[in-house]
């Protein structure tokens, strides 16, 4: 039962982190268009955000795999350094997104996530990873 709870917590954390990252990317991209003089209505913002959440599923896979590795490492670190236990998973989630973005930048010489090309957008992606890590911390089964 504990393993199943961990798997479900990981999946929910990955989906929440992905949804936040995708929405942040859309927000930054549309704000850049608006700064160029384009009219971006609320309905366009909402429909674009929803379309990106449904359409960037390869980024969901990157986040899920990154969280898998990062959360495992965080579980080991917090076992040896208990003072880090409350923040281990949010830091791991942030680190997973940062690592993924930097690996993509190294591979493609650009951040393929449009919103991450802006410095604020880059940090919003990392914050989305921290939110995913916090979700995992809150949902995961706790040992007695």
Instruction: Pick out the low-confidence regions.
Output: none
Cα gyration radius (Å) = 16 Å
Count of spatially separate domains: 1
Distance between the termini: 14 Å
Topology as H/E string? HHHHH
Number of strands: 0
Helix vs. strand class: mainly alpha
- Individual helix count: 5
Rounded mean pLDDT is 94
Give the biggest beta sheet: none
Instruction: Quote the beta fraction.
Output: under 5%
Helicity range = over 70%
Shape: elongated
Please give the structural blueprint.
Blueprint: H1 2-35, H2 42-55, H3 57-80, H4 88-108, H5 119-139
What can be said about this structure in brief?
With 144 residues, this protein is mainly α. It is built from 5 helices and no strands. The mean pLDDT is 94.
Question: Could you explain the architecture of this structure?
Answer:
This protein has 144 residues and is mainly α. It has one domain (2-139). The chain contains 5 helices and no strands. α1 crosses α3 and α3 (57-80) packs across α4 (88-108). The longest helix is centred in the N-terminal third of the chain and has 34 residues, at 2-35. The mean pLDDT is 94.
Q: What keyword list fits this structure?
A:
mainly alpha, 0% strand, 5 helices, 79% helix, 144 residues
